Amino acid sequence: MGFFATSCGPSGRIERPPTSGEEDTTLGASDVFDVRVFGEEELSGTYRVAQDGTIDYPFIGRMEVAGLEPYEIADLVEGRLRDDGYLVNPQVSVFVQEYNSKRISVLGAVRNPGSFPMQSGLTVVQAISLAGGFTSLANRDGTTVSRRVSGETRRFAVPVDAITSGREGDFSVQAQDIIYVPERIF
User: Fold this and answer.
1) Beta strand spans in the chain (E)
2) d(Cα 72, Cα 76) in Å, to the nearest integer?
């Protein structure tokens, strides 16, 4: 792959970016998700996590969901519906619509720089699109991603032209990443 990183730490070594398996998919305040209970439309719905980390769910009442993975919320709802005697064998699925508690920043030579909600599976090219795309002065292949890895800030060079032409795979974004697109030097 053509991705490389220069560490901002004392070693200054060049390294590969971390694997995408490190994605944090736990829910937090203001995140929006769907709960679907098979065959039970009145128990299915869309929920926004309150600032205190809870939701109000039919029959069950207030439930703490902040810090839980979607599958853990599904297991919790299934267990409460079964154990409280509402359903014999509930089948619950949870689908996250918006990760508002986790954000990324896209800065520099993009049309609408700013902070954006993290979306599962988001890539650098998609994040730049969220920010309105490149300006006419953008140095596309100068794009970098700054990320905290093991308590240290690392910068990853992302060859956007090679990605968009299909020569390289896209780079997965993680919550709290900062994507920076510099301007070209003429």
Assistant:
1) 4-7, 14-15, 32-37, 45-48, 54-57, 61-64, 92-108, 114-118, 144-149, 152-157, 178-181
2) 6
- The pTM assigned to this predicted structure is 0.69
Q: Long-range contacts of range 86-94, CB-CB < 8 Å, 24 or more positions apart?
A: 86/59, 87/37, 87/40, 90/37, 90/38, 90/40, 91/37, 91/38, 91/39, 92/35, 92/36, 92/37, 92/38, 93/35, 93/36, 93/38, 94/33, 94/34, 94/35, 94/36, 94/70
- Token pair 């599976």 is found at 121
Name residue 167's amino acid: R
pLDDT of residue 22: 61
Beta pairing, strands 144-149 & 14-15: unpaired
Condensed to tens digits (0 to 9), the pLDDT of residues 1-10 reads 344 443 344 3
Question: Which pLDDT tens digit goes with each residue over 11-48?
Answer: 443 344 554 446 778 999 999 999 999 999 999 999 99
CATH number of 31-98: 3.30.1950.10
Domain boundaries, the chain: 31-98, 103-181
Q: How confident is the model at residue 180 (pLDDT cuts 50, 70, 90)?
A: very high
CATH code assigned to 103-181: 3.10.560.10
